Task: inverse folding
């Protein structure tokens, strides 16, 4: 079924039901934790006319004197702040003054918009179970899946065949066990995992026992990582125990992209999001193969602040609050980011590659903007790149970003971006249509996996869903 949306891509107000969620120390926020009831996908569907995000201009970034101090506060790793109140007022926060250009009923929307995926049926097929999975990825030269457990272990799932028809089995032992280095307090844990292009190096992002964010490299030996080969690429002091972000991803250029939240607490008290002199509130781009000076990594010459004059050289884009899962479209190289909101708005941002790397120097707006709404009296900064889709707390509590589907098992979903919400547990699709409009619809509404913690891809582009109860499931035709 299609989601009612406004011309900015935001869902219209929907019936909300209180959902008790226990994960990562009340990950989904304060008293306004709500999730949609089973019957909220009713009403009209709307084709949303949108414009491409504005070209990012690295020169518009503001720099302040905020520094990376330390403090403490604990909430969950995929949610909003436990001390934040309000929210849930979706009709005030997710509806634009611009009205939709055309409206159709659910029965005719697919024919009007083109693709038939919103009318089809899909399901999740559990293929394995591990201890609190946070990341799933693939490795060049292997058909297997590689899964990070929050406590600090990486497991391997052997795979023979493709998609839901493949045979999966959890291999004995750990690929890497760094549990003694990792804390799971607050939003901590083993939060990121990726491999080098040739599969010979493993990169992990975790919260160490001091509560700081660490990016480390390990050499692979067969199907396991050599613990003695550990090389710390970067260690960043965290002022609070929430908004770690933590995902690390190999980009289309083979370099590392590392997402870091604004440092935590609530409301970005250090103004990290708009402060390009700090590494917090950004996605960084690093070259682990060509260290520079005393650093264990190099700074690519085409990073927007590579000269260090207007911001930290490592920054690729900025203005994020708590990016919980970003991904590159393996076909187009476009970048999609799910960013967890403060009290009112969850957002998905789309950054097109447009003949180059996506998102260079982009300012996504936090803490001047929360999604498509001004935050605390703010206004869009110069060069602001707004979200392609937003929704309010009447529809969920904490966005979980996903992937553009490029597998072979479900041709109708080709090119559809899949994401979820920690409270709703539904799998939602966003399709950018040829006429510039956006179609948003349910893909899977069965919440059998519990809260959706993260997504993953295998080598063929099939999409997997990681559930809060430990399930690893593949998306399959219904």
Result:
């Amino acid at each position: 079924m299609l989601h009612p949306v406004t011309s900015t891509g935001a869902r219209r107000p929907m019936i909300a039901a209180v959902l008790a969620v226990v994960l990562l120390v009340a990950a989904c926020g304060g008293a306004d934790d709500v999730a949609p009831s089973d019957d909220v996908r009713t009403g009209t569907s709307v084709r949303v006319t949108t414009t491409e995000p504005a070209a990012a201009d690295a020169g518009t970034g503001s720099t302040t004197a905020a520094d990376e101090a330390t403090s403490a506060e604990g909430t969950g790793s995929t949610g909003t702040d436990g001390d934040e109140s309000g929210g849930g007022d979706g009709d005030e926060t997710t509806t634009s003054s611009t009205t939709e250009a055309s409206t159709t009923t659910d029965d005719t929307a697919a024919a009007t918009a083109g693709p038939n995926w919103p009318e089809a049926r899909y399901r999740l097929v559990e293929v394995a179970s591990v201890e609190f999975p946070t990341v799933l990825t693939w490795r060049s030269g292997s058909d297997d899946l590689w899964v990070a457990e929050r406590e600090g272990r990486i497991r391997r799932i052997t795979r023979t065949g493709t998609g839901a028809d493949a045979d999966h089995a959890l291999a004995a032992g750990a690929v890497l066990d760094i549990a003694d280095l990792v804390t799971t307090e607050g939003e901590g844990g083993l939060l990121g995992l990726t491999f080098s292009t040739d599969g010979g190096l493993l990169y992990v992002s975790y919260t160490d026992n001091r509560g700081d964010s660490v990016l480390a490299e390990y050499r692979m030996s067969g199907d396991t990582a050599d613990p003695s080969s550990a090389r710390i690429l970067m260690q960043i002091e965290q002022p609070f125990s929430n908004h770690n972000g933590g995902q690390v991803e190999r980009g289309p250029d083979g370099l590392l992209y590392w997402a870091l939240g604004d440092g935590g607490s609530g409301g970005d008290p250090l103004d990290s999001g708009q402060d390009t002199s700090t590494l917090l509130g950004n996605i960084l781009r690093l070259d682990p193969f060509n260290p520079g000076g005393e650093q264990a990594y190099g700074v690519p010459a085409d990073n927007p602040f590579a000269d260090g004059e207007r911001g930290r050289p490592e920054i690729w884009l900025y203005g994020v609050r708590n990016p919980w899962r970003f991904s590159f479209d393996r076909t187009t190289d476009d970048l999609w980011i799910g960013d967890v909101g403060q009290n009112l708005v969850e957002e998905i941002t789309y950054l097109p590659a447009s003949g180059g790397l996506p998102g260079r120097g982009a300012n996504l707006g936090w803490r001047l903007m929360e999604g498509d709404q001004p935050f605390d009296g703010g206004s869009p900064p110069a060069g602001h790149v707004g979200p392609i889709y937003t929704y309010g707390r009447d529809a969920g509590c904490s966005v979980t970003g996903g992937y553009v589907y490029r597998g072979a098992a479900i041709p109708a979903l080709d090119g559809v971006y899949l994401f979820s919400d920690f409270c709703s547990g539904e799998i939602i699709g966003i399709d950018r249509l040829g006429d510039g409009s956006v179609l948003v619809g349910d893909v899977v509404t069965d919440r059998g996996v519990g809260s959706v913690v993260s997504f993953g891809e295998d080598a063929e582009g099939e999409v997997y869903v990681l559930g809060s109860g430990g399930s690893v499931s593949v998306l399959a035709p219904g």
Summary: The longest helix spans residues 106-113. The chain has one domain: 16-477.
